[in-house]
Design goal:
Two copies of one chain form a homodimer. By secondary structure, the first copy, chain A, is α/β, with parallel strands linked by helices. Chain A is built from 15 helices and 16 strands. Chains A, B: It is found in: Cytoplasm.
Chain lengths: 423, 423
């Protein structure tokens, strides 16, 4: 059977199952989410056994597979522990605690002719997720999609296939026992790129596709998909230290944005400093960053400090996701805005300033999903924003921009009630 | 110069101009819209002269062009009159009267850590419009995009090229005189399909593409575009007359939905009648529709009436946009829901019933942009919904669904204000 046929079949089952899920009450969905959480813990052994297979394969690929062992940090993401399973279960319980977006009346009015008009949130229908070797995404995505009334087709990395198969088997049993249809959560069959490709071409069968992972994965989905895509997460984030910055705050924010967690999309990758505060700030920030093990890729002014590596245009464009930062002195706020306009990926950009006018210009003119004033870029996060759960951070302008919680996983419909109204 | 280079150049100019437009106040934009309206009337002669060229070309294509004269109804859409120009000017003034979506705070809160969080509406940036031979769309789209802070690239039908060139020249002069940059409104150069193709491939340069026109145009844009598309307007709309319908209301709604205006996407194309009321309703509805000149493409039960043509599956799928309707008797509400699930284009579907439970099931289970109870499908319209202006009716689920007014022409950004906040 070709990948295309296989994907069409799971999508068809998902469509049928999505219809009853769309009509499920919040109480049914929340009870199901708790049952899913319970099942993850009750059947931890199965899941950990599946995961052990994946980890073993990643550490020592079978001879003849032609594959090299995976890098240690990828194996770390892949590995599940009892503690991580507890985190996944806790995540599902938290989703159960969130308000149900389905049925929310977004707006409504009584029209002049007596027609009642309401715009109401409804599920998309069938959501496709394409993601890398983090088995926790399997449970997170299943929970968020179920709560928002969407059937989900999961296509994780083939390196996590045994983990994902075990998790999905456990979740599907819990869903069935709770009285909903198991086909609201399905793995996309097939381990080759053909199944990813088929998923991207399933326009009409899959309503939305959400890729989560590195820039390469996301770009390939954006370019090849005929299914509407929500582009997530590439973050070339900037911190601009203005002439009017409080340099203590600036130092704390730069350090936090760069070093709090380097592998995430809201970590800072570039530092811009106003020329008037360069003399005062550069020695402090260079010493502090280097003290944390950060390599600075700097312009000529930064380059006057020991240990700073010369930056090229590639550095301005790079999402390092590591203990590296590009750094440049800019002549003024306009220079900072121009640099950000040219190089930012439109995720999160921050200004540090005590000058109200400068902060207002930065907020108005920086065209990014999140613009921060005197705060670390690390705050761009569904949890930090109080959304309670997050399926990803959108860097596109259509539909959703920034952290996506449950409401962003829905569409709307208009309901019009009359009494024989004609035009 | 290739079409690709030409499109890149106009898109680049649009991007630059969009930046100052995004910062323009409502007062500036409204004054500009009034100036645009004034200019359309003051320079009506130029526009009508351009239009006369288009109409002449449409009626009698030059020998050797290989083109046939356009159909009378297309020439009617193409033709401008003083009255139609006044309508276009009035449309611009109405847009000036609408609230500015830009800057609207969609939601906001003070987070537990003291961070101020706001989600604020911002323009997309650069919008591309691809449309057919209706020169009024040129002014409408320019007005809606300007008010929502977006630069627009207009690619109308080449059969309206002289009209569009004249209208855009007049609008650009008015924009310049009002102090905004003329490049917020531009025609896409080139009259071949190459320029449409280049527009569809201008990902990153054009933020959103909105096709308006027939099903063929929209499908080709949806399939070929790498720029995010908002799919508009194909309407295979249904009226379902339930067992518990008030048959007088049902008759009025069916007639209105089918015959009030046949060429529009919210006109009804299919009639479904519950078997229990078929005997009472069919003679009345067949006579009334035929009395208005409607050809009924019916199933066997409808076929027992004189003049009814036998329907095939093609009829259930067809958006006639003419005095034709497909008609079928269904065994029950489930049969109606099944038919609509199979054949509806997801635009607007109506039930006529006095039964609350039936209306609630119909509203919950019909997955369309608009679901109407005891009201004509013709009400799915930005004007009727009170939105004041409409760029089109979206039949997709991502971003906007149903009539799109000014807020649907925007994205949002998150603004986060702190005082040295770090995680």
């Amino acid at each position: 059977m070709t990948a295309e046929v296989e994907v069409r079949q799971v999508a068809q089952r998902a469509r049928v199952a999505s219809r009853s899920l769309a009509l499920a009450t919040r109480a049914q969905k929340d009870a199901t989410l708790h049952a899913m959480a319970d099942a993850l813990l009750a059947r931890a052994d199965e899941i950990l056994a599946g995961n052990a297979e994946d980890v073993a394969r990643a550490e020592a690929p079978s001879t003849g597979s032609g594959q090299a062992p995976l890098a240690a940090n990828i194996i770390d993401r892949l590995r599940l522990t009892t503690e991580r399973l507890e985190g996944m279960a806790q995540g599902l319980r938290e989703v159960a605690g969130l308000a149900d977006p389905v049925g929310e009346v977004v707006r409504g009015s009584l029209l002049a002719n007596g027609l009642e008009l309401r715009q109401v949130r409804v599920p998309f229908g069938v959501v496709g997720m394409i993601y890398e070797a983090r088995p926790n995404v399997t449970a997170d995505a299943a929970g968020i999609c179920l709560k928002s009334g969407n059937a989900v087709l999961l296509r994780g990395s083939s390196s996590a296939r045994s983990s994902n198969a075990a998790i999905v088997a456990v979740l599907r049993d819990a869903i069935t026992e709770s009285g909903l249809e198991a086909d609201v959560v399905q793995l996309v069959p097939g381990e080759t790129h053909d199944s990813v490709k088929a998923l991207m071409r399933a326009r009409g069968q899959v309503d939305v596709l959400i890729p989560r992972g590195g820039a390469g994965l996301i770009q390939s989905v954006v370019n090849e998909s005929t299914v509407p895509v929500i582009e997530t997460g590439v973050g070339n984030c900037h911190v601009y230290v203005d002439r009017a910055a409080d340099l203590d705050k600036a130092l704390a924010i730069v350090l936090n944005a760069k070093t709090h967690r380097t592998s995430v999309c809201n970590a800072a990758e570039s530092l811009l400093v106003h020329a008037e505060v360069a003399d005062a700030f550069l020695p402090r920030v260079v010493a502090a960053l280097q003290g944390e093990g950060v390599t600075i890729h700097g312009d000529a002014t930064f380059g006057a400090h020991d240990g700073v590596v010369a930056a090229t245009d590639d550095d301005w464009a790079t999402e390092y996701l590591s203990l590296d930062i590009a750094a440049r002195v800019v002549p003024d706020l306009d220079g900072a805005l121009e640099h950000i306009r040219t190089w930012s990926s439109g995720h999160s950009d921050a200004i540090v300033t005590e000058d109200l006018a400068a902060s207002r210009r930065f907020v108005a003119e920086v065209d990014s999903a999140a613009v921060l004033v005197n705060a670390s870029t690390r705050f761009t996060d569904g949890g930090e924003f109080g959304f309670g759960a997050e399926i990803g951070i959108s860097t596109q302008k259509l539909h959703a921009r920034g952290p996506m919680g449950l409401p962003e996983m829905t569409s709307t419909k208009y309901v019009v009630i009359g009494d024989g109204h004609v035009r």
